[in-house]
Amino acid sequence: MAENKTVTFIVTRQDSPDSSPYKETFHVPYKKNMNIISGLMEIQKNPVNAKGEKVSPVQWEMNCLEEVCGACSMVINGTARQSCAALVDQLEQPITIEPMDTFPVVRDLIIDRSRMFDALKRIKAWIPIDGTYDLGPGPRMPEKKRQWAYELSKCMTCGVCLEACPNVNDKSDFIGPAFLSLPRLYNAHPTGEMNKGDRLNALMGDGGITGCGNSQNCVQVCPKGIPLTTSIAAMNRATNIQAFKNFFGSDNSH
């Protein structure tokens, strides 16, 4: 019986960044435990829409297929999430699939993530290491600190929290929840702490932490369960302290 069963996908498509979006319906052969990615792969294999017309295959991005890379984010039945972890059996039908509208569309479900990469550069989302030679073991972190830092490190820059945040839109330059949380992670690192002041000053600029409206949508949708609102509260305190340091001329690197 399952051999003849189909699943209906209604995909929002867009042929180029400047063209208008349109919806296209596909009937996809059902398989037990299939996810959205496997459905899109069926369309790619046989790109024929519900009208029987041969069309161009739907374009989307994916990589790890185990909810780690963040590449396959899209809006499924109105909710932004990872399509590799979205099981067809757990979704209402027909299944609607759209690109995240917080980002410019390149084609179909592929989006331009430049705003996220620019935000990563702005907050210096890395640990600076001086030299390419072997520096030996790095400084150790206390176990308790390492445990909560590990939770923050699960961020995969998937963009779902930006899609859910009402303050991230084309009328705002707010960098988004993920990039308020990541400085907390890097500032907690014994080496990363050297650039703590730079990261906090970046958050205090235009589009930084004052753009957060505390809607808390981000923490509800994060696929990795990162305590984003806790981090944002911590960064609020840290930026206030940094502001005092700047005002009184203290060394803002520590």
TrEMBL record:
<keyword id="KW-0408">Iron</keyword>
<dbReference type="InterPro" id="IPR050573">
    <property type="entry name" value="SDH/FRD_Iron-Sulfur"/>
</dbReference>
<dbReference type="InterPro" id="IPR012675">
    <property type="entry name" value="Beta-grasp_dom_sf"/>
</dbReference>
<dbReference type="InterPro" id="IPR036010">
    <property type="entry name" value="2Fe-2S_ferredoxin-like_sf"/>
</dbReference>
<dbReference type="GO" id="GO:0008177">
    <property type="term" value="F:succinate dehydrogenase (quinone) activity"/>
</dbReference>
<protein>
    <recommendedName>
        <fullName>succinate dehydrogenase</fullName>
        <ecNumber>1.3.5.1</ecNumber>
    </recommendedName>
</protein>
<keyword id="KW-0479">Metal-binding</keyword>
<keyword id="KW-0560">Oxidoreductase</keyword>
<dbReference type="GO" id="GO:0051538">
    <property type="term" value="F:3 iron, 4 sulfur cluster binding"/>
</dbReference>
<keyword id="KW-0411">Iron-sulfur</keyword>
<dbReference type="GO" id="GO:0046872">
    <property type="term" value="F:metal ion binding"/>
</dbReference>
<dbReference type="GO" id="GO:0051537">
    <property type="term" value="F:2 iron, 2 sulfur cluster binding"/>
</dbReference>
<dbReference type="Pfam" id="PF13085">
    <property type="entry name" value="Fer2_3"/>
</dbReference>
<dbReference type="InterPro" id="IPR004489">
    <property type="entry name" value="Succ_DH/fum_Rdtase_Fe-S"/>
</dbReference>
<dbReference type="GO" id="GO:0051539">
    <property type="term" value="F:4 iron, 4 sulfur cluster binding"/>
</dbReference>
<feature type="domain" description="4Fe-4S ferredoxin-type">
    <location>
        <begin position="146"/>
        <end position="174"/>
    </location>
</feature>
<dbReference type="InterPro" id="IPR009051">
    <property type="entry name" value="Helical_ferredxn"/>
</dbReference>
<keyword id="KW-0816">Tricarboxylic acid cycle</keyword>
<keyword id="KW-0003">3Fe-4S</keyword>
<comment type="similarity">
    <text>Belongs to the succinate dehydrogenase/fumarate reductase iron-sulfur protein family.</text>
</comment>
<keyword id="KW-0001">2Fe-2S</keyword>
<keyword id="KW-0004">4Fe-4S</keyword>
<dbReference type="GO" id="GO:0006099">
    <property type="term" value="P:tricarboxylic acid cycle"/>
</dbReference>
<dbReference type="GO" id="GO:0009055">
    <property type="term" value="F:electron transfer activity"/>
</dbReference>
<dbReference type="InterPro" id="IPR017900">
    <property type="entry name" value="4Fe4S_Fe_S_CS"/>
</dbReference>
<dbReference type="GO" id="GO:0022904">
    <property type="term" value="P:respiratory electron transport chain"/>
</dbReference>
<dbReference type="Pfam" id="PF13183">
    <property type="entry name" value="Fer4_8"/>
</dbReference>
<dbReference type="InterPro" id="IPR017896">
    <property type="entry name" value="4Fe4S_Fe-S-bd"/>
</dbReference>
<dbReference type="InterPro" id="IPR025192">
    <property type="entry name" value="Succ_DH/fum_Rdtase_N"/>
</dbReference>
